[in-house]
Design brief:
Layout (H helix, E strand, L loop, with lengths): L11 E2 L2 H4 L4 H16 L1 H24 L6 E4 L2 H11 L7 E5 L4 H14 L2 E5 L7 H11 L4 E7 L11 H10 L4 E5 L10 H4 L3 E5 L11 E5 L34 H7 L7 H4 L1 H11 L2 H22 L13 E6 L4 H10 L3 E2 L2 E4 L2 E7 L6 H14 L4
Parallel strand pairs: 1-10, 3-4, 3-5, 5-6, 6-7
Antiparallel strand pairs: 2-8, 7-8, 9-12, 11-12
This protein binds pyridoxal-5'-phosphate.
Length: 386
């Protein structure tokens, strides 16, 4: 499996979660699209891109259990969150509800947007170890008549937990509150059925666990919200189609949603067009059996490290997929990350949540058990117990 990737052979790469890793054949597919683009950039970007992007969206939509008309490509999940946050017509006194497990950049986006409108951004503490019912209840009881949106991750960033999304969406909808899901880590990592899930908005990265080229992600929105979404960059889609046709299909699109959000000025769409190749790679090499093996390796490592330090894991096996937060005694997280990388050539992030510290292990199909063992050995040998 490792031969499909260009990862440094000197490195123990246990951080697929941060930026993914793109297989050689997917990079080749992207380069082939770039080559086609440069044969006649005007033909490719101006006249063919709308059709090509639609085909790419159809492949992606089938993979995530959605309809192609309900999703658009965005460069990353941060952009997806920003589009939804900035489109929300908040009033002074309104509230956006979230958890204390969210990704810092997206917290920042919500804090900024709420401040602009005199609204507040409230992060509900989620008790750890995660108790799924308790988590749903904590969020449910925090909803109020002023809640305009519930925003939360599908798979959390520093703690790698899979949140009980279906139940939370149901609870929010029962009180008329729309839900935005930050699924940055979900596509290719856990099975997605976005139509069945029914979240109002869902943004997911293709460049992490789906192993697509960097800068590929999507924003999915239920159709009743399409006309309310504003692009972060206003471009041709706001005028083309209202009589302002420029002759380039790329600028038009078949719906307001597609027109506003698909074209944000000239950019390289080759990564999005190669998402189909990433899906094929995923089907061929990263199927359920491989992912189950990775999950089992991650869970065994979590149990060993937790047992060694006498620190309880923050979730049960069902609360994780291929990422696991290995609980380590409180430490200088950056110093530990630097030591693991500099001395042991292990690329792995060290995270903090409150006063807990974790080594966030990612196991992807290209990882060997010996690599995970090496990390566990180093941690248990070198870190002081408690
Ligand atoms: C939960 C979560 N949301 C959003 C992001 C941001 O992803 P991107 O940088 O691709 O926008 C991350 C990145 O790790 C994340 O973990």
């Amino acid at each position: 499996m490792r031969e499909h990737f260009t990862l440094d052979p000197e490195l123990i790469f246990l951080n697929h979660g941060s930026f993914g890793a793109c297989p050689i054949e997917v990079m080749q597919a992207q380069h082939e699209w770039q080559r086609q683009m440069e044969r006649n950039p005007v033909e490719f970007l101006g006249r063919r891109s709308a059709t090509l992007l639609r085909q790419a969206r159809e492949q992606l939509a089938a993979f995530v259990g959605a309809q192609a008309d309900h999703l658009v490509f965005v460069p990353n999940a941060t952009t997806g969150v920003n589009i939804v946050a900035r489109s929300l017509a908040l009033q002074p006194g309104d509230e956006v509800l979230s958890t204390d497990l969210e990704y810092g950049a997206c917290d920042a986006a919500w804090q900024w947007v709420c401040r602009q409108h005199g609204a507040s951004y409230r992060r509900v503490p989620i008790a750890l170890p995660l108790q799924r019912e308790q988590c749903v209840q904590a969020l449910q009881s925090a909803l109020s008549p002023r809640t305009r949106m519930l925003y939360l991750s599908h798979v959390t960033s520093t703690t790698a937990l899979i949140l009980p999304l279906a139940e939370i969406v149901q609870a929010a909808h029962a009180q008329g509150v729309p839900v935005l899901v930050d699924g940055a880590h979900a596509p290719g990592h856990i099975e997605l059925e976005l139509d069945a899930l029914g979240a109002d908005f869902y943004t997911g990265n293709c460049h992490k666990w789906l192993c697509a080229p960097k800068g590929t992600a999507f924003l999915h929105a239920r159709p009743e919200h399409h006309e309310r979404l504003e692009a972060t960059v206003v471009s041709w889609g706001y005028v083309a189609g209202d009589g302002g046709h420029t002759g380039f299909d790329a600028y038009t699109g078949r719906s307001v949603f597609e027109r506003r959000l698909q074209w944000q000025g000239t950019h390289d769409i080759s990564g999005c067009l190669a998402v189909g190749a990433a899906i094929e790679f995923h089907h061929r090499h990263l199927g359920p059996a491989v992912r189950q093996r990775c999950h089992a390796l991650a869970m065994a490592a979590m149990q060993r490290v937790a047992g060694h330090f006498g620190l309880p894991p923050i979730g049960a096996a069902a609360d994780f997929a291929q990422m696991a937060p290995l609980p380590v005694p409180p430490c200088d997280t950056e110093a530990l990350r630097e030591r693991l990388f500099g001395v042991h050539r292990i690329e792995v992030p060290v995270t903090r949540h409150g006063d807990r510290c974790f080594v966030r292990l990612s196991v992807q199909g290209y990882n060997r058990p010996s690599e995970v063992d090496r990390l566990v050995d180093v941690l248990t040998r070198e870190l002081p117990r408690g």
